[in-house]
Amino acid sequence: MVERSVGGSTDNQPSLGLTPLSRVRLDELLQEMLDRVGEVVTSRERLRALLDAVVGIGTDLDLRSTLQRIVASACALAGARYGALGVIGANRTELSDFITYGMDPEIHAKIGDLPHGRGVLGLLITDPHPVRLPDINKHPDSYGFPPHHPPMHSFLGVPVRTRDQIYGNLYLSEKQGADEFSDDDEEIVVALAAAAGVAIDNARLFTLARRRERWLAAAAEITGVLLGTVRRTEALRLIARRAREVADAELVMVLLYDEQNSRYTIEVVDGNDPEYGSLEGKLIPVDSAAAAEFGRERYRAVEDLRATVEWPGPVPDSPALAAPLSASNTLHGVLIVTPRAGQNPTDEDAMLLSAFAGQAALALERARAQDEREQLVVLEDRERIARDLHDVVIQRLFATGMQLQGAIAHAGRPEAVRRVNAAVDDLDATIRDIRRSIFELRAPVGPSLRLELREAAAAAAGPLGFRPVLDTSGPVDSAIPDDIVPELLAVLREALANVARHAGAESVRVSVRAADDEVILQVEDDGAGMDPALARGGVVNMGERAHDLGGSFEAGPGPGGKGTTVTWRVPLAG
Which residues form a coiled coil (predicted)? Predict the structure, then answer.
């Protein structure tokens, strides 16, 4: 007797009372349950990988390293062969940086310039939403790939937000093990991008804090300099050097403002290229709108430094920041910082530079105050010496001369009278020299007309063959206005040039006197003489210079009809 199993089965396996159809359905349910368990396990693993990635990208606060880890983590989570993170520039229309992953450095170098955000890459810039494509080449906005670029098909792009602003975009390509990226890939990369935004924001804040710390340290160093004796050039060189180090700049220049002459002087230059040193000491007239605006704003950003003004030497053709060196409502100059190539200065950089420039301006203010204090000490000492010479030395010399003149009546021999008169003349000459020295002592510290007159006379020694005698009297430095000085010097040079060309003189005497509300320049020579009626060229110009200033000009024979005497006089009022 054959034993039958339940359900008609002829084998010895227990059937649990199920029909063949029920067993098939049970197998399907069991397989579906296993598939879902597998999906749960896979999702759990991907979730764990996502959490690991989130923790990983936040372990370091260096911004560049953070961006590189974000791209690597996105590729690992989505199974992408290639990945990139494009940072959107300040103009919000193109990419300013492009961090890649999965591409060999050799291929990277062959490709050349990084993308600017055109084609499909630009879709996320204009419309910041996830983009998933089975083949990027078939998209109507595809811009194509440059030479040497590896082939790419499947594509996934996700925007990266920091707070309420789009910082950049994550680009993934070439899904491994599938033809295209899945919904799960998109969701997990979107989740990673959200965490990446927080990590990027933290890294940026940390970078900003460190940058502020460096600027504060540099400002503290300048403050330390203020506590001691300040030498302007040394302080400016320290300011330029520290600004270049902190800003990691290509070039830093300190321009000092000359309001009287409406120009800037490039006082200090600190740059990576030795050729920049040729800029030091050069002048920049304030005749352009850009140069005039340098010191009127808290800070000024320029897109191209080279195109801003007509520079007297080489400067980079890149963006730059200019901050005024101003204190006590006085513009001392401008601090200009040019970042390295590829770096664009931000508003935060400009504000930090402006604060540093304000501290640097205090160094200039203190240096100027110390210079004025030192000049005041010198002037006080000069005034004391001048007073002693006038009240003591001159009076004693004058008394000695009077005594000698009184002794002439008692001198019986002509030789004794001659010697006494000669001694009196020497005393008079000494008194004139001392009075001239007194005027020089009381002259302001700075540019000196007496010095310029001596230089003009010395310059004429070559053409003349001898050095003219120069005699100045009266307050030449302090009484003659600035608008008369260049005219006076021009007339003197022209007169000496005429003597050298036409007179054939053996001696020339130049006298400049400031007294009785007028200045008188007289040039006498013992040469061949001249006919005033034939005056032309330079002689006519000398007369016109005098008439323009309300004065007079005479040129004619010297004493005794010998040589020529040129007399140029103008009122001190001009």
Answer: none
Q: Is residue 254 within 8 Å of 239, Cβ to Cβ? A: yes
Within-domain flag for 322? yes
Q: Please write the tens of the pLDDT for every residue from 252-296.
A: 888 888 877 778 888 888 888 888 888 888 888 776 555 556 656
How many domains in the chain?
4
Q: Domain check: are 453 and 519 in the same one?
A: yes
> Could you tell me if residue 329 is inside a domain?
yes
416 and 556 share one domain: no
SS3 label, residue 301: strand
Q: What's the rounded Cα separation, in Å, for the pair 435 and 450?
A: 14
Residue 417 belongs to what domain range?
375-441
Among residues 143, 116, 119, the alpha carbon closest in space to that of 131 is found at: 119
Return the H-helix or E-strand segment holding 166. Answer: strand 165-175
Nearest to 247 by CA among 333, 325, 315, 345: 345
Whether 217 and 203 map to the same domain: the answer is no
Closest CA to 355 of 484, 555, 217, 176: 217
Residue 562 lies in a domain: yes
**In the block, residue with structure tokens 């390293």:** 65
Pairing of strands 508-515, 469-473: parallel
**Residue 534: which pLDDT band, with cuts at 50, 70 and 90?**
low
- Note whether 280 and 222 are same-domain residues: yes
Cβ atoms of 202 and 58 closer than 8 Å: yes
Considering the domain boundaries, does residue 127 fall inside one?
yes
Which region holds residue 111: left if phi is over 0, alpha if psi is between -120 and 50, else beta?
Answer: alpha
Percent over 70 (pLDDT), the chain: 73
CA 190 to CA 125: how far, in whole Å? 16
Indicate if the pLDDT at residue 500 is higher than 80.
yes
CATH number of the domain that residue 486 is part of:
3.30.565.10
- Tell me: do 232 and 326 sit in the same domain: yes
d(CA 353, CA 248): 12
SS3 159: strand
